[in-house]
Amino acid sequence: MAPAREAPPPAKKYFWGDSPEPDEYYASLGLRHAEAYFQSPCGRLFTHSFHPLSASHDGDVKGVVFMTHGYGSDSSWMFQTIAINYAKWGYAVFCADLLGHGRSEGVHGYLGDMEAVARAALSFFLSVRRSDAHAALPAFLFGESMGGAATMLVYLRSPPDAGWTGIILSAPLLVIPDDMYPSRVRLFLYGLLFGLADTWAVLPDKKMVGKSIRDPEKLKVIASNPRLYRGPPRVGTMRELARVTAMLRESFGEVTAPFLAVHGTDDGVTSPEGSKMLYERAASEDKSLILYDGMYHSLIQGESDENRHRVLADMRAWIDERVRRYAGSGAAAEAPAA
């Protein structure tokens, strides 16, 4: 019999506690926030938007940032602290729970078709990107962890007129560390069942959360997320992540957009070698890589306040400079044709 799973900490209503209510909380930060569902071609997505209260309408912002969360997570808990920071800097931020995550459609924790996952997110992002309020603004893609892999896939599958000004990647999943890599024998054996085992949550649990978060108090908050996927990795998810990361590495040379990749050197979930390889192989003329000595995987949600402020300051400096450099100039690289 499998050992009993450790019960999650008592749930709070929100990641900041049981009060205040959301509208009051966001207003106290100088922000307005909205939630909605979006019907993509591949399934319904749950979405968020964040705007500075100083913006009288959607166009009164520096630019637009489209954010993608990591594996097992969603956009409604601690991940939104990243969105909140960007909105406080003067950006309109849009997030979507990936298929199989949070309140979006799909089997919980299942990513058996990353092309569909990326297509769904891209559909939402482009619906905002092409709106009258945002079409003329600088626009950035942001991805954290597995969301970094999804973001790269979104970029590579974007039409040339998407006009992404830049990409920001936080500890992107581009190389799976050896001790996190799924057993090829297990994947082969389950593959003999001709897809019947694809959604089975039976692969060994690598305890990713514990390898991601340095700050124990932040770990408690993250672990209390009521929508966090807590089961073992599903067969199709690990098979697909292994396939997609290998494919992305072969496509690094197609990346021409400006980008910033940040990674902790002690990341036990996604290898910093992936960020190094992207930096070395990408065709982008404007590319930046920052490695943080001794930091873990979750650079913003799980590190000490001192470390997270350092990472956020580097991100803010980079994006503000790209807005200054490229806004209205047409200098940002186009995405490769889908």
Q: Count the domains.
A: 1
Q: Tell me the fraction of residues in β-strands, as a range.
A: 15-25%
Largest sheet: 8 strands, mixed
Question: What is the CATH level 1 assignment?
Answer: Alpha Beta
| Reported CATH architecture | 3-Layer(aba) Sandwich
Strand order of the largest sheet: 1-2-4-3-5-6-7-8
Assign the CATH superfamily: Alpha/Beta hydrolase fold, catalytic domain
Which term fits the overall shape? globular
Q: Give the helix tally.
A: 10
**What structural class results from the helix and strand content?**
alpha/beta
InterPro entries: AB_hydrolase_1, AB_hydrolase_fold, Hydrolase_4, MAG_DAG_Lipase
Organism: Oryza meyeriana var. granulata
Protein name: Serine aminopeptidase S33 domain-containing protein
Pfam families: Hydrolase_4 (PF12146)
Essential attributes:
33% helix, disordered N terminus, 338 residues, Rossmann fold, eight-stranded mixed beta sheet
Describe it:
The protein has ten helices and eight strands. The chain is globular, with a radius of gyration of 19 Å. The protein is α/β, with parallel strands linked by helices. Residues 1-7 and 330-335 have low confidence and may be disordered. Helix 4 (146-156) packs across helix 8 (235-251). The protein has one domain (22-326): 3-Layer(aba) Sandwich (Rossmann fold).
